[in-house]
Amino acid sequence: MDERAVSRQELIRQRRRGGFVGRRRELAVFEENFARRTDDASYQFLFHVHGTAGVGKTSLLRQWEATARRHGALTTLLGDEVHGVLEAMEAVSAQLLRQGFPLKGFDKLLATYHLRRHEAETAVPEQGREPGPGGASGPSIAGELVARAGMAGLGLVPGLGPIAGAVDPRQVAEGADRLRLALGARLRSREDVQLVLSPLQVLTPVFLADLAAVAGRTPWVVLFFDTYERTAPVLDEWLRDVLIAERYGPVPVSVQVVLCGQGRLAPRWWADSLELIAPVGLDLFSQEEARALLAARGVTREPVVDLVLRLSGRLPVLVDLLAQARPAHPDAVEDPSDTAVERFLKWEPDPRRRATALDCALPLYLDEDVFAVAVGDRAVPPERTAEEYGWLRGLSFVTDGAGRCRYHDVVRAAMLRVRRAQSPARWRTDQLRLADALRRWREVREGGRPGARELWKDPVWREHRLGEMYHMLCADPVAALAGALDTLVHACDPGGTAAHRAALTAERAGQDAGDPALAALGRTLREAADGEDGGGRVRVLTLLLGARELAGPSRVLAHVLRGREHRNSGQDARALADYDRALDLDPGALRAHYGRGTTHLLAGRYERALVDLTHFVERDPAAAHGWVERGRCLHHLGRDEEAVADLDRALLTTPEDPWALCFRGQAHLALGRTERAVADFDAAVARSPDDGSIRAWRGAAMHALGRYEEALAHLDRWLEERPRSVWGLAQRAGTLASLGRFEDALADLGTALELRPDAPWLLVRRGHLLRRTRRHPEALADFDAALALEPANAWARAGRGETLRCLGRTDRALAELDRAHALDPADPWILAWRGRLHRRTGNLGRALADLDGALALAPGSAWDVYERALVLRLTGRDADAELSRAADLFAREAASLGVHGGRSRGNLLVVLCALGAWQRAAEETTVFLSPGRPAWQIEEVLADLTDLRAAADPDPRRTGELAARLTAALG
């Protein structure tokens, strides 16, 4: 015997349970699908139930859900409480968890996303514009792509009129690149940056993989989406990409999806997939279905049935509502009231319950606490509250779920109109009572927690705050508008869907209060807020700033928040205009000072940034992020001791912040404290081991220590993650040059210049490398190109002068070095080069003055000490002490660099020859000519020995012998 068989009476009870009648065809469509093989061409994985409000879509969905569970399916049901894709995935995960099937990987990654997003909220781009003296930065191609995506989010789409074209795409692209760097500067890894920048792209594949694993352990998984007309704007594209395009990975065919809403699916997303969707349209009850429902309720007398059908218009929810009273005579249906609601409630004999039903239409949702407040002075005794609330939940137009319930929209709207018309004064009193209760609950929820920005992320607190705003607006739309606008501004602060929720709540308040102006404002704000991007917040804030009712403090905050969004999208000028306006309204607005300071920092206007950031930290010394940003600003200004002090202070509060450690390491590196810089970089890497940005800076420190292979490994890893990083390419070029890999270094600089052809600092770097490899005409071309872009570039002038010296054009070389020194009188290298040229041309007094000046600026420069000794010898003075000092400096340098100390050993060899220490010179020559010594290092030593023999050689024969050994080694 079939164990699944049931008796006839049980079958009858099942079909009558819940009073569900009719819709046989629609029930069969879904039931029969479970009997098909998934490879059957008629098998359906995507249904769309559609119809006007009140036709019974939700009731049908409940029946379908019961059907699915009878077939062993796991089910989830989402309604219009979902305001975004992330919330939809989170809700599905939570419902599957309650059924014993958690999505563990997704839940873990979602928790990481919320944490990393919080960490990134105060981020400012780590790199700003690419380093280099003066050159304007430009966006990368990748940044252009990000920008175009971002422009759609900013509302730059057809139909928005004058906004379109108002934004420079290159500015947006530059901002997108900086935003990526900013997040890289604050988060732990490249994966975390991607997670915060593109949460849907990262989370969806994990969600689907977990869902597939669940589907493999159960016959079916059915995902129901009710009230889809409200959630479609935020879910359509994602669902299409998941179910049709499988953009994020495969979805098992045993996973079915049911969309249920009032309208048709949007052609934009579904027009090319309609043949894959099983449409199930619901309309008004037919005469037969309506009569069947009335019969099931015991309403069979023809005059009564005719009257009910006429009053209800065969709208299923209203047919059911009228049928529940079981009227036995037409007189029992007729009513002098000209409102449908009065007719609906006429058959409830208890006038208190009739009033309760009307009162409980006021809240957006109901639980026992809200029920008690809604009934007000008709409060029931505590011992009967649960009983009365249970009665209310059992009404046909009340939908129950997860401990809460809500009225059907059609019925609630009619009841609200009745309540407003019956007594406007009582309407206002009741709305204020509900608002006051929600305010008290909100304040209890706040406890001692800081800042409204964080509280907006608490769903319970947020619901109380929005509910309070809703009831205040319903009570008096005009008087409550300023407070509502304040709430809407604050909702734009935390990001996510808070602004969309707040706008939707204002729109509902306008509809329910019968205020067309408020409803229109709410609708405009909601449409502006659609999407989970910063552009939606910009649109909302712009609309709010156009409202004259927006109060002063809220107006200040609106400018600050819009400035933040403009800054993050690369619109520096607009950001600064907003911050300036905020400070015009309130000079003490700290967030405006911080935002304006970080925007100036981002744009390389360090002095102006320092003013705002100093103002911020002086008035909020506990804000660690303020000290971090001011420390970075001081580092850019060359005030590295002060930068270290600021970063020390930040690390007292946030010792685990890897980027505070990394920034301090950069300051130590600039101060020449390489070991301390490495310690900071090591600590930063330990806290964020996967962050390529931090490893790149550690590579720079390794380079300074002469540990070139380690430096190269870090920089290679950075460039694997960011192959278009101009800074990374230039840094690696320097390391490759130190390893003697000149062609590879030139290739990196060439790639960097393809990305940034207008960057003079890159041209200067390549020019010096070309000069060093004796490609003098090419070097001159690079220096000339750099000077065309930036005539005041001292290093380009100096490089041009040194190249001309190498070409024997002494007079022109000296003129260029004079101009370079005038541009940067504090650069020791320029003084040393000019001093060497003066020595070679016999101007020994000027040579000595230049070398003394260079050593005053850089006392540890061994080569400058050697050059000074040569000048002393040429002027007839004793130079042995200076030569011995130079030899000691080069020896220590060679020992510290180990296998990378070849150049230092070559320099030591030259100095020993000048000193006349021939035995040591011969020994050093043997060490220097160890196997594998690159030819370019040998050639450099030969050139320096030639220079020594021409200047002040103590023994030309001995020097010549050593030069012969070196020449022979070249083969």
Q: What features would you describe in this structure?
A:
Among the domains are: 8-114 and 199-281, Rossmann fold (3-Layer(aba) Sandwich); 287-334, no CATH class; 424-550, no CATH class; 759-859, Serine Threonine Protein Phosphatase 5, Tetratricopeptide repeat; 865-971, no CATH class. It is elongated, with a radius of gyration of 38 Å. The strands form 2 sheets. The protein has a 5-stranded parallel β-sheet, with helices on both faces. Strands 6-7 form a two-stranded antiparallel sheet. β6 and β7 form a beta hairpin. It is mainly α and 971 residues long. The longest helix has 23 residues, at 424-446. Helices cover 68% and strands 4% of the residues. It contains 51 helices and 7 strands.
Task: Give the tags.
single chain; 971 residues; mainly alpha; Rossmann fold; five-stranded parallel beta sheet; two-stranded antiparallel ribbon; 7 strands
Strand tally: 7
Q: Which radius of gyration do the C-alpha atoms yield?
A: 38 Å
> Superfamily at the CATH H level of the domain at 8-114 and 199-281?
P-loop containing nucleotide triphosphate hydrolases
The oligomeric state of the chains shown is single chain
**CATH level 1 name of the domain at 8-114 and 199-281:** Alpha Beta
Largest sheet: 5 strands, parallel
Helix content: 55-70%
Based on CA inertia axes, which overall geometry fits?
A: elongated
> What is the number of helical segments per DSSP (H or I, 4+ residues)?
51
Strand order of the largest sheet: 2-3-4-1-5
Could you list the spans in which at least 5 consecutive residues all have pLDDT below 50?
11-19, 123-167, 332-340
CATH topology of the domain at 8-114 and 199-281: Rossmann fold
- The average pLDDT value, as a whole number, equals 82
Q: Beta fraction of the residues?
A: under 5%
CATH architecture of the domain at 8-114 and 199-281: 3-Layer(aba) Sandwich
User: What structural category arises from helix and sheet content?
Assistant: mainly alpha
Distance between the termini: 99 Å
